[in-house]
Amino acid sequence: MLPKNLQADQFSGYPPKARGLAVLHIATFRQLPLVFLPGLLRELIEYDFKFPAERTAIDGELATLSARSPVEIAELFRGFSILKLSESFEHFDWVNQPARFVEQESAYLWSTHQLDAFRSAATQYGNRVQASLPNEPPTVRRLGIAVIGQGSSSQEPLFRKLRPHGIYFNQVKPDDGLGLLLAAVEARAKTYPSAYAHWYVDGGEPALQSSSLTTVSYAALQPVRSKLLGYMQQQIASIGMGPEELRTNMATLLPKDLGMSGDGDQTLNRFQVSLFTEGSGTQIFSTTFAQWTTREVLRRAQPLTLMVRYAPRQRQRPMSELLSNSDAAIALDLPGSLVDADMAAYYHWINQERLPGAGESSFLVWFEGHDQALVIAPTLPRDTQSDSVMDLADLVRLIAD
Amino acid sequence: MKDSSREIAWQLGRTRREFLRDAARMTIGTGLMSASPFLRAATIAKKRKVIVVTFGGGARDEETFAPEGQGNIPHMLAELIPQSSFFTQVKNSGILGHYVATASLATGVYETLNNFAAVPPDHPTVFEYFRKDLSRPASDAWVVAPSNGFNRIGGSGCRSYGPGFGAQVILPKHLLSAASGGKGTDYDHLLHDNYETPLYAPQLAGGEFEVKQLEKILKLSVADFTLHAKTLSSPDELSVYITKRLMQQESPSLLWLTMHDIDIAHSGAFSLYVDAIRRTDRLCGELWNAIQQEPEYAGNTTLLILPDFGRDADQDAGGNGFQHHRTGDIASRTTWMMALGAGIRQGMVYDTPVQSIDLVPTLGAIMGFDAMQSRGKPIQELV
């Protein structure tokens, strides 16, 4: 089937809000090329479980598409229309399985050397749609905080990639630093309350439970991780199972499949499951989990505040041992974890810079328990070092006000 | 878009070139130079040997040739680059999966096979061209590769060539598993595979044959082999160990080593990725030293080192920086190549863009075979 043949009842399997939107915009969908539409439906089918920022983005994209004439749509999608898919893709149930379609389409585009053209078309399309949407700045300057190196005493030079962008402090008073940062984050959340706008991610046990914050922690998700690893082991043992099938099957897992309650926050639960089923290495290393969670929170929820605390990861062990859930004592790699988290803090800042209002956003990274920190804010000088004696609350005030 | 891509690729190459020029006082080559050094070295053509080293899992400039990365490659920097011809822009226009990309390097055609399947390349490999055209025995072409999927890379599915002319393939990790009687407990740290999909490792039959390889060809007892493996920290160390044994025992004229440790980057642990770069750098230095120390190789061997492709740039929102190579951006497609040893001009840097698939016809020109189905072209600066 091609998009031009779409009928409203084909969306009957979609959740209510997604179905409503699909039916509302079906006339537009019929004009879109097959190489593109399933990618849009992959997002739409999850609409009911998406964060507010994602829903706003989908609403905006659909509205801007439906406001265009057929000629304008044809022109907008010209880059996609020149791409060729094999006929077998037309027989795929791409309405109900858009994610699987996109996976196979991706492999096909790679193998037919069309990926670069697809990438170019997608970039152009994204830029043009973005330009047509209202560019509303966040209600308050975004704040990112990374706390790295828990338990480490390494003398590794830190923040090298971030130093050109901010002030490096080397006489920070570390006393109660974590508490001061969490208090500042919680205060922001109470001052500017909004759903999924203020996050605290911890690569270990969370140091604060606050109803004002959306909290994700590696330790709290241990049961989910264990269930997933068990599922992966079972799948691997199946006859004919390959890596692509495994990945496809993992992508279909829901919170209840991994033992999560059906009564909780389904948006958050689905998000947390996706961190393990779509991330690479998140199942194994806590530093990777925290970094990937940071990326996904920024990309999807576009928070006003995101504080991430990195915990030591286990040392590298054989993959089979890592995935077997053995009860053997797990040694930690403290120096390696610090290096991982230092790079992750840089990625935190890069990803924050991709969000609306980037020019006004601010960032702080602190070597936990130590006297080194770095801050970035539009009002502060760049590539500077300061010997000022300040505590973490002072530093937050410096960049958040 | 295309112009922008070209500009980024040029910048990548320029960064490498300027680094090399500053660090190693190398000469910037411009197009064709004078007569080929291979012509000058024709008297030793009969003994010429070529060793190709590829790494699965490219290392980005930030962690290697850029100023902040140079500390990770001391052996390449101080020992190898000054005596090499260095190509700053090698583009891989194919599929960025390690098996399919290595297969493309080995055939000179951008292959489209399933990256995760143990299938042979569709087009003739460099080993088949070499053996068929030059009537070389099976013992003269070998592949050492880390990954189970690579067991088919020695010969293609092409009917006019095929396994009868292919290279013999050793998968050291699989060999170790076979040597340990399938009880991998003591050797697990070397056996994991395919960092991109870490749990998946297709099982191969033929362990008995491989143990025979160990004893009859490498002249290693199972006990000595397994004992030595216990002293190693990574699969690539095992691969280099096997490569050296092959050089000593078989002295193949065409030897292909694929390393894979760097691909630990897929786990998202930056420190492990950097550790792997440092290890790979050290192993390249060790291999070069081994070449100088082996009478069969010293003075008549050309060594080519190249990653199969790059990794995603930090700036590409579609990726996650160093972790993957999924965006198809310029950084993930653009890498470098160094050639050193017999017949190679020392201290040269070439900005001329070349393709990954140019490797096989270049080897053909160097060694005297016709890579007739390859879609690349010989790199003039090397032939």
What does this structure look like?
The complex is a heterodimer of chains A (401) and B (383). Mean pLDDT of chain A is 93; it is low at 318-324. In chain A, strands 5-4-6-1-9-10-2-11 form an eight-stranded mixed β-sheet, with helices on both faces. Chain A has two domains: 3-132, no CATH class; 143-221 and 266-400, no CATH class. Chain A has helices at residues 16-24, 26-29, 37-44, 52-66, 70-76, 78-81, 98-111, 115-132, 177-191, 222-237, 243-251, 266-277, 286-301, 319-322, 334-353, 392-400; strands at residues 143-148, 167-169, 172-173, 198-202, 214-217, 305-309, 313-314, 332-333, 362-367, 373-376, 384-386, 390-391. Chain A is of the alpha/beta class and 401 residues long. The relative contact order of chain A is 0.15. In chain A, strand 9 and strand 10 (373-376) form a beta hairpin. Chain A contains 16 helices and twelve strands. Chain B has 383 residues and is an alpha/beta fold. Chain B contains 13 helices and ten strands. In chain B, strands 1, 2, 3, 4, 5, 6, 7, 8, 9 and 10 form a ten-stranded mixed β-sheet that branches. In chain B, helix 6 crosses helix 8 (207-217). Chains A and B meet through helix 8, helix 10, helix 11, helix 13 and helix 14 of A and helix 7 and helix 11 of B.
